[in-house]
Specification:
This protein is mainly α and about 90 residues long. The protein has 3 helices and no strands. Helix 1 packs across helix 3.
């Protein structure tokens, strides 16, 4: 059971990271990167939907806060993580 929570949490972080990249690649008009990124978005969303819905169908509602917290942390990391990486790379 704990493994599923960890998977949902990690998949939500990864999904939100890829969604941020999707916006970035769309803005920069990078089609190849956008298409590859779309594959990863779809794979992670499929995984997180499977594990989340499976738990909800079993009346395990604790999965909801895990899902939401993973989403929030994923968005925060993707937005702030980019800033930190860019600042470290600049001379």
């Amino acid at each position: 059971m704990i493994i599923e929570y960890i998977l949902i949490f990690v998949f939500q972080i990864v999904f939100n990271f890829f969604k941020t990249l999707e916006i970035k690649y769309t803005y920069e008009d990078k089609l190849k990167e956008l298409l590859i990124n779309s594959i990863w978005i779809n794979l992670t969303s499929l995984c997180v939907a499977y594990y989340s819905l499976e738990n909800l169908f079993k009346h395990n509602y604790f999965v909801i806060p895990v899902y939401i917290v993973g989403s929030i942390i994923g968005k925060w990391l993707s937005m702030r993580g980019f800033d930190m990486l860019i600042k470290k790379r600049e001379p």
